[in-house]
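hey so u asked for the seq, here:
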Amino acid sequence: MIIGNIDAKDDHRTYKAASLMGPRSGTPSVVDSSDGKLIRIRPFHYDEGRDISELNPWKITARGRTFAPPNRTLISSFFLSYKKRVYSENRVRYPLKRVDFDPKGERNPQNRGKSGYVRISWDEASQIVADELGRIKEKYGMSAVLSQADFHGEGKNLAPSHGCANRLLSLLGGYTTQMRNEDSWEGWYWGSKNVWGCEPVGEMMPSGNLFPDICENSELLLFWGCDPETTPLGIDGHMASRLCYHFTSLGIKSVYVDPALNYGAAVHADKWIPVLPNTDAALYLAIAWLWLTEGTYDKKYVKTHVLGSEPFFDYVLGKEDGIPKTPRWATSACGINEWTIKALARDWARKITSICIGNGGPGIRGPYATEPARLQSILLSMQGLGKPGRHQAKLIEWNLFSAKYPLPYQGKAIPTPPHFAEVVRPPGDTTGGRYTLLPFQAEMPELRAVCGPTGTPPHQFIPRCLVHEAILTGHAEWQGLYTFNGPADEQWEAHEYPAKGCSRIHMIWTDAPCNITCWNDGYRFIEAYRDPSIEFMVAQQPWMENDCLLADIVFPIATAFELTDISEDTAGGIYTSIYRQRPACPPVGESVSDFEAVARVAKKISDEVYNAYTHNEISDDALVELFFKGSGVAHLDENDDFRKKDMFVMPCDPDIREVPPGLRPFADDPVKNPLLTPTGKLEFTSTGLLKHFPDDQERPPYPKWIEKGPSHDEALSSDRAKKYPLLCMSNHGRWRMHAQCDDITWTREIETMKIRAEDGYQYEPAWLSPSEAMKRGIKHKDIVKVFNEKGAVLCAAYVTERLIDGVVYVDHGARFDPINDEVDRGGAINLITPRSITSKRATGMVVSGFLAEVAKVTGKEMEGWKKSHPEAFARKIDHAVGTCLEGWLRS
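ran it, structure tokens below
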């Protein structure tokens, strides 16, 4: 039996991973089912059927208080309500074909996203895709097929939500891969790596034992663009929230620097300092100026641990350009009063301080985000980075990049089941197969046979943030990003598309259909997908949303709740576990696993290809057993809990506190414990940038305040601001995980998720301050348009004092619901984000801190759209779910 669907038993319970990160770990939940239906989803209790003391629970004791793990998992609201997602009116229940797409006649690519779909059989759908692969291969070669197979998605391991098609494409002779840009770490990856090394993403590493050290020593925590009550929810649950409450109980002060009083600030902040989006660099420079002029930085540490401080200090003091970066200078840029900047700088210098981050945020994915990222690293260094209580601490993905486990200690690591499909395999790579194997896993013949190298690697790659430009112009050039999370040295390497001897893209196979709502310049992606050069596009996805609406064929995919699987929890911050996931319900409609969907195409090509792809139909149960053996922890399961109880929870390491906290070894002895920078020291002036790009004005050798440049002009001082006078901020949403969970009916009733306007439609909220709303005659719940030169996105006004003036705030990830080619009703704000990458030689995306305007939508304007585009308003909109499958079906 190939990986696929198994009918669920009646009246039973199983475990499911609370993970929306694609093929990786997930906190376990308990799912109760009856009569083949999901009944409820609840936390998993570690003390059910086991003695907690046997797990040797970790604890952090400091200042007379103890922080210890809870006895249950802390899953988020959208996991507790995930059955509404499984049974959503937006589920793809059977294969679909675009109504005016004829593979043997007119293809009408210009109508993608407009024309609707008809139901077809699996036999017809898989045959069309197989035929198109053969036609494209013969006409252009396999490099003409672009595989879009990178994060995020449901956490699946046996049949990953991303990359199953890559195995087939490799067997057919290779493909072009979409390389995920560093979307959650843009500024740190392209900036901070050049200050402190800290592979792989530029956030401070290693991070073992940070939180015990913070609890013992820190006096002040700066939550910089960090929301511990929002960003971790789709990945780790609420453990970060509990830790923040504990910080407060210890008397550690929390200051939040953010354009909005975010959800974390609302419950944890001792002080909120609102800063204009993408102006953090000016604030950091002003703080540095005050420390330099008042002598309140760690001079001895800088002398022994830092290289290239003098040019940077000269710039801060104004010796280079004649402009001292004073608090008064910074005020006009960042919107913070001079005395507040001074108070923040002095408090930071006086107290033992750490910065808390949580990925993303307005400061790290904006224009020239390398500069505030580098400055954050530099300011931490000026106060003795790595000394007791002085760190950059991450409140998300507790163990994603740690060398040690478990958290909050982040102690000794455990291997995990092989789980990555060929998601980001670079051109020329011969090590990747269906999964990326650890060395000890590669030594297991039976595992290597299933998951080892297969076929031809990709011929070329395109960064995800440049796919639209590559398609529309036929050419693209960029630096770095040869691999996802690749080493710093890759940033100096130049690449181009098409690669030598390769074709342009003529077919797209996507299992990550969210570019128009989560990536840069979504309207440009729509234009690219409609380009005649894209002769065929197939999507596989459980839900009919976003990029699926532009596909020619859509495969119905089963959710994780309908499948057999294995998962591990190495990121929840409570206990480490590995567990079997049994089906909680039968598949919805004709949906199958991602792996089975691709296998059906392979079967249409030939029996030989099918057998190579499926490894002769190995069963789900055999794969679960094989993956458990390959996890590296099977020998520790002395009571056979995994096989008897479907859950093995690993005891914590009793010697965990022996792990040095963070960069303490470097702080203690920088010679014996060098960093991963070229010199081994903290580089305020980057030796790499000096060597490779000394004249780069958009990412100079030491960080600067870059208000505008050749790539971006998105500041309030711009001439463009006369027409678009607001800075648009776009963050992770509290009620969904990127583009996932926008259709959960329970959370859609919350005003910060959706606002039902007078016309009955549930609009995405657009936050405005009372004064900005008043200037425009806008009231709470009014239908508004957020717009710039690229187009408009309709929202409903959420008028609140939780946002600084000069800003409009819309979460990314809402579902695309087009009225026409320039107006979207669904609130997909990334449609109007900038096209250009982070800077000329930093290949990241810019999706926050860009110029826009907000205006009330008048009745006359809405009636005009209804009259000119009646088909957009004739589509069925489910009262509770919003956009739905039925709205796109044609008889």
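Residues 1-6, 400-426, 428-435 have pLDDT under 50 and may be disordered. The two ends are 35 Å apart (CA to CA).
lmk if thats what u needed
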